[in-house]
Amino acid sequence: MRTSDLIKDQQAEQRLLFRRALVAGLGMALLLLVLIGRLLHLQVVSYQHYSMLSNDNRVKLVALAPPRGLIYDRNGVVLAENRPSFRLVLTPEEVKDIDDTLRRLGETIELSESDLTRFRETLSRSRRFEEVPIKLRLSEDEVARLAVDRHRFPGVEVQAQATRHYPLRGIAAHAIGYVGRINAQELQRLTEQGRAANYSGSTHIGKLGVEQYYEDLLHGTVGYEKLETNAVGRVIRTLERTPPVPGKDIHLSLDIRLQQIAEAALGEYTGAIVAIAPATGEVLAFVSQPTYDLNLFVNGIDIESYQALQRDPNTPLFNRALRGQYPPGSTIKPLVALAALEHGAVRANEEIHCPGFYMLPGIDHRYRDWKRSGHGPVDMTKAIAESCDVYFYDIAYRVGIDFMSSFLGEFGLGQPTGIDLAGELSGLMPSREWKRVNRNQVWFHGETVITGIGQGFMLATPLQLAEATATLANRGRRIKPHLLHAIGDGNSGRQPNLFKQPPHKPITLRSERYWDDVIEAMRQVVHSRTGTARSIGRGLEYQMASKTGTSQVVGIAQDAKYDAETLARYLHDHALFIAFAPIEAPEIALAVVVEHGGSGSRVAAPIARQVIDAYMELKRADAERQPKT
After folding, report:
1. How confident is the model over 203-227, as a mean pLDDT?
2. For residue 459, what is the domain's CATH number?
3. Which of 229, 471, 563, 582 has the fewest Cβ atoms nearer than 10 Å?
4. 330 catalytic, yes or no?
5. What is the pTM of this model?
6. Residue 589: what are its φ and ψ, rounded to 5°?
């Protein structure tokens, strides 16, 4: 067969052409379907994602954290402020290899292990487009080095920010509290409360004290900026700006001058002092000793420093004024005396013989008096002035635990005061019902007897003792202690007396004379020749009503004698003192608790006088500085 015949096989050529056209058509159709599918994916399925990426190439939305409100004392002294600083942040979606970037950053600036740990913890709970802080406080040298090498670290920026600073460091630390970095639990709580959006751009939140309690006032409202950027992320211009609303400044009722004097008065002792203005409930001094530097916690305390604070046997992180629960000892004797008068168990001028011990009917156990030889015949005035235990054993037994518990509860014992601080403990005012419910045991008369001198199950915080003392000064008008004095800036525009006292039913007695009887007895604690705190009465220019107290830390056998020299310091009795002054128009009521101080009259009373003297002197100096009209 000739070649030409093969070439001219038109049917074969047509079949070959058809097959080629079919394959080409199918290929084109398949490619068209792929193209259509890709277009659908881009334009429909992933429209939102790529639209956002497209806009991010041109428009960047940046949250503007609001400046935190400042904290002042009642006289305008700054207690918490904002200082300018620089921080280093990373945006995860703009960084290809985060680990490599961190490694190279560590070659340029110092990144501690705690910095990296906190960064990874924050990264794990952040979205990829959110900025994550790497280091919160950069030195000027570190800022300069990063500026030179900025091109090496895409997605990493140095940002100016305001950092919380406490200029007085540890003064009033347990009242002011501190801010710290927002953790996972706090972020979850903010999300559940629908408040997370207001913390966009914010890295810190109030952790303790006033900083925590008034977080909503201090934080402010977040703002936003729409920024136009070029391909490399450089800002070209601001398209739109919603400025943040700064947090409100707050003024505390604390007088920081008095606070410093009170802290110095405690010296090396651990303990607490709370001073209140009886008329308003404003807390003038709130001392828990020892204290600590608040600035350590703002940007994350290092592990070594935190462990040192935790290991400190004096527990500086523990808020004794708010959470310390102590047997109140003899400081509650004026309240027990009022309960006995109101109950009708005793008359103010009725004498009870004190031989140095007390015995319940039919029981040979002796409840000792602090004075082993006894006080002889004592009435209510002498019993309070000389702190006769036997007298109060007797009247407590006459009154009974149920009436005594209910009556003392009206002064706030056994319940939180409601102060504007979180974490307050309630102390304990025992009763027959309390023991049945909590111990599944019956109440014994002996427990009533020792409750009458503030021992046994009874516990009170220094804050509760100060509130009860203020209620005594007010002759039954109970106030709620508070730290908030006003809202506004440091000099003008503040709203004074913002805090409104909740309604408390006043304590009414069968006779107003009972208040006079007890307060006169408290006056003689300092102003009589036999009062337990007569040593601080010399040279007083005002009249003070007070009561000393000593609470046992360790039990002593019935016939044994307490000898502090044979006991370790941590086994010494606590020293307590309550007082208000001036008696005729009370301006300050306070409670002092000195841990292991040994004696209320020798240790706590002189501390209280220093504080009250300082208050009177500061008041006089302030009055002299006022312009004369």
Report:
1. 92
2. 3.40.710.10
3. 563
4. yes
5. 0.82
6. -125, 135
CA-CA distances (angstroms) from residue 258 to 46, 61, 254, 264, 287? 65, 48, 8, 10, 10
What is the distance between the alpha carbons of residues 576 and 462, in angstroms, rounded to a whole number? 9
- Split into its structural domains, the chain has a count of 1
- Residue 547: domain span: 323-475+512-625
Q: Considering the domain boundaries, does residue 523 fall inside one?
A: yes
Burial class (CB in 10 A: 0-12, 13-18, 19+), 330: buried
Using DSSP, state whether 483 is helix, strand or coil: coil
Separation CA 601–CA 23 (nearest Å) = 109
Cα-based angle 458, 460, 466 (whole degrees, multiple of 5): 140
Residue 549 to residue 573: CA distance in whole angstroms: 10
pLDDT of residue 404: 97
The amino acid that residue 109 corresponds to is I
| Catalytic residue selected from 253, 288, 330, 599 | 330
Residue among 319, 573, 600, 580 nearest 463 (CA)? 319
Listed in sequence order, the residues at least 6 apart from 349 whose beta carbon sits closer than 8 Å to its beta carbon are 379, 380
| Residue 536 in domain | yes
- What DSSP string describes 63-106? EEPPPPPPEE-TTS-EEEEEEEEEEEEE-GGG-S-HHHHHHHHH
- Length of the chain in terms of residues written: 629
**What phi, psi does 562 have (nearest 5°)?**
-70, 125
What residue ranges in 465-572 does DSSP mark as E strands?
484-487, 495-496, 545-551
Residue 565: pLDDT band (50, 70, 90) is low
Distance CA 434, CA 574 (A): 25
On average, the pLDDT of the chain sits at 88
Residues 6+ apart with CB under 8 A from 205: 179, 180, 182, 186, 199, 215, 219
Q: Is the pLDDT of residue 76 over 70?
A: yes
Q: pLDDT digit string (tens) for 153-190?
A: 888 988 887 889 999 999 999 999 999 988 888 888 98
Q: Quote the tokens at residue 381.
A: 């005035």
What is the per-residue pLDDT across 254-296, written as a single tens digit (0 to 9) for each? Answer: 999 999 999 999 999 999 999 999 999 999 999 999 999 999 9
Q: What is the CA radius of gyration of the chain?
A: 36
> Domain for residue 596, yes or no?
yes
**Cα–Cα dist 560/493, whole Å:** 64
Helix axes 389-399, 401-409, angle to 10 degrees: 100
Residue range 355-410, pLDDT digits in tens = 999 999 989 899 999 999 999 999 999 999 999 999 999 999 999 999 999 999 99
Residue 454 has pLDDT above 60, yes or no: yes
d(CA 598, CA 575): 5
